[in-house]
Amino acid sequence: MVSTKSKRGYQYFGRPVPGLEIPDFRTGLKWRGADLQTLRNTIRGPALPLGPDFERVSFKTGDGLGLKAALHRPVTPAGLPVVILIHGLAGCEESPNIVSAAAWFLSLGYPVLRLNLRGAGPSADSSRGPYHGGLSDDLARVVDQVAAREYGAGIILYGISLGGNMMLKYLGERGADERIRVAIGVSAPLDLKSVQVRIMERRNRLYHNYLLLGMKNYAGQMAGRISASLLAGAKAAKSLFDFDDKFTAPAHGMTGAEEYYRLHSARNFVGDIKIPTLLVHARNDPWIPVEDYLARDWPVAGAVSLVIADDGGHVGFHAKDHKVPWHERLAAHYLDCVQARMT
Questions:
Q1: What are the chain's domains?
Q2: Which residue, among 305, 304, 308, has the nearest Cα to 294 in the 3D structure?
Q3: How many Å apart are CA 87 and CA 90, to the nearest integer?
């Protein structure tokens, strides 16, 4: 493992990227600390507006049903890859962090696709849920269809939180794929079990209860499209672990949450990634332990570059010197550098 530690507010591990200039990360007093960083977009909304114009598109999944997404095309096409945004737990295309990333990349000239996973947002009426963090087959089918439709000059994958776990699993399974130019994961879990342990800690009780309520509401939208016994299990769940144990896992033929976490955690797949990938995480992420990242070796000869910020919370990274979140600006710099070497 190689680490570049400085007073710039972050550490860098893994594959060096020539020409990459990582902006300093400094937080202001107003939004400093794990919880304020995590909640800022929910409280204030994204920094950049996302216009109302988009095209509703659909993708077939392996069961013959489909997922829905919002496709945004830049006003002035620049011949750039399309960015597929993959949301996290209890999220959808309207999640503040998804809207924030969409507005930023669209402003840079990228086509953007806000994907709704099974049972989420507009996909609730067209798919058979639930989704889970390892449902990489759905992502594979979306990638295949996006590539065939040529929404952009190649594909960029951008996974947030649990969507990052799905993305990393997909990348590790797929290996090299010339259609995917770059991948970016923000606050992605590596070990699904350790995330559940962390989120159920006393200090995270409000987060846990909010997410559990969101997941129960999400499950309730599937009435009539999934068995009554599974829905009863979701309704009775006292924790997110119970929810996965009684609903998510059995809905996909698994014995329970332990099997789900063991089989589908990204840690099992990141070592096989061949596509240039940037991971951004915060030391003080209240949901996902930074120890899961620090315990791994991130070889310079690998495909993954890892940046761990001193502050930033969970998908926060709000700096005092710029309205656009630091991780989104970092992602843009990374994309520029990696793609420049491909041309």
A1: 3-191+265-342 (3.40.50.1820), 192-264 (no CATH)
A2: 308
A3: 8
